[in-house]
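Why show two proteins at once? Because comparison is the fastest way to build intuition. When a single record is shown, students tend to memorize it. When two are placed side by side, the eye starts asking what differs. So, the first record is below.
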Amino acid sequence: MTYVDRNTALSQSFGPPGLAYADGFAVSSVIEQPLLSLKQAGANAGISIKVISGYRSYDEQVGTFNYWVSQEMQTDPSLTRQQAEEKANTYSARPGHSEHQLGTAVDLNSLDTSFEGTPEQQWLAQHAEEYGFVLSYPKNDLAANGGYMHEPWHFRYVGRAIAQDLKSLDYQSQSNDWTLNKYLREKCGLS
């Protein structure tokens, strides 16, 4: 298990040892079968689950982050570059700090907050852990999410044992402070 957050970076050359593809997006080969199983279980329940983002290299994250910084500056021309970077960094990780670089994080179905409460989001919130996936940023509080906004579409594969343990801790609840990164720090000794 690899730890990454706003303060702990992956090297520029870091990448998953093998790649597979899901809905046309690269993902770590480690998550290929669990992801297919998750998608099939959703389909069996009448829920369509589609990968809309997967593995992203360091260099790709440079482009992604810079795009969002430029969007912030276009929206509010009074922002300095640093201010725009700070705003963008609440929803787009700086290069080297993105879980997508691990290859084990996927965005599912939508990148819009309106995804919250949809049948697909509700099904994923109830069943993703059965397949080893957890919400990385489950809270409506930036501080609780390590500085990132709530992303009901962003799931990371951590394996069934950790995912089920997080579920037993009710990590999606807004009334406690359990998140994936807190779990990895406190229960797994990673940082």
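Second record. Ask yourself what differs from the first in the token line.
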Amino acid sequence: MTARVQVGRFVLEIGAPAGTRAVLATETTGADPAEVAVALSQPGPPETLVAAEEALDGAASVTGRVERALELFTAVAQGRVDRKIVLQEVDVLLGVLERLDREGRYGDVFRLARALTGLLALLMRWVALVQAVRLALKAAQALGDGAGQAWARHELGTLSLGAEDAAAANGDLEQALRLRRELGDEAGAKVTQHNLAVLKQAFGPQQNGSSWSRPAVVAAVVAGGLLLGAAGVGVAMLIRDGDAPPAVDTVGPVVGFEEAPEDPTEERSASFAFSADEEVQAFECRLDGGPFEECSNPHNAAGPLAFGEHVFAVRAIDFAGNRGTAARHRWAVERGEGPRATIVKGPQPITNETAAEFTIEAPDAIRLECRVDDDDFESCKMLVSRTVDEGDHTFVARALDADDTAGPPAEYRWTVDTTAPTVEIEAALRTGEETAEVTFTPGESESRIECVLLEPGQPDTTPLEVDRVPECSSPAVFEGLRSDLAYLVRVSATDAAGNVGPPDEAKIDAWTTLE
């Protein structure tokens, strides 16, 4: 899952595996770039991290901490968690991170630091965020993890971009791009290249090899003109020049839909997913003319919804108490098709029977209608009998409800074939003293051919069967024949519909030799 947070004139899309993606915003709002600049100026993590980690020395595994950080990120992004509780848990997680760093457990440091960065950005805990990324970079360097170093450089460069420090941003992003190209990380390099392009769009290209000028807020931080006061773990306050009051947030959050029902639809329940353009403390939902009530994201509207038009509205309340304008989704629930009929039994797909019987099932139907081929629909029962001619046929059944709304038609296709197949013997020849070969051609390619070899015997006697091949192909070879006898071969065909055609016969002469 990804989320967005705005710093000055940059919108940062956080949570993607390849790293934070910066977008130049249409207007300047969100967090003050000076706060990020102050965080980047700090040399190390605040001392108050120690107390938090000591309190949980015997807590759950690092894997559990990583999973919890990711759960909190999702909960904060969806606006479904108490901010005060999150801040308390974040302080504990930051304490665990510092302890892991002191113990030199760099693999665990990198895992937890990376899991925390998205959450810290959403909470705008800039000092803690910078420290977490720096600890991740330190861990990656200790491990020789090039991909990890590239990710940390990318994040630091993107944060410098938000702090309006083009030179620092360019330096870290260029290092990240070089590492990612060396590692063949195309997805990561693409995101880093994008952020470098945004940097040039925001600050313009460097002129004649010179570096970008350092913005006033960054210069003030470096010169000590801006001071950092810690109030809890990683919580920074920016001391502004003069007596100008801090900016007051009076703008309500804007909500947009990510998932909503299609319009129109036959579904009589609805599910919605939505998000706000800033961190919010609650969402409120309303269906049709009902009242707004606090709701979760995603939100399900249980059915059955009435047929017709519906309107779902959702709005958000931010942590400054501003209630935004409701976003609305309109859609219509339409009556679907009538009940479905199913033909569960019918004649064989190819048959020689002209009588056909069908069995229909339609549990929700009030009545049924049927037809054969181009006939008109007429009322029918669940058991239907029809007599048809030879040829291809289509039986159609449909079910109707109490409003005479017809469901989708069910079709059954079959072929009636009453014509017997033919087969013609082309040659019946001795191929040796004890062998003979018979070649033949069936009138239908899908026929099954049976070959029978007979001894004719005396006149007016029944021929004696010598060999029978139920499924033979041309040429058929017979072996073990007596050289002094003549034989009779009889070939018959049975087609796919079961029709048996008249046999064709031929004589196989006795074997003769030339002296």
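One difference worth noting in the second protein: The mean pLDDT is 85.
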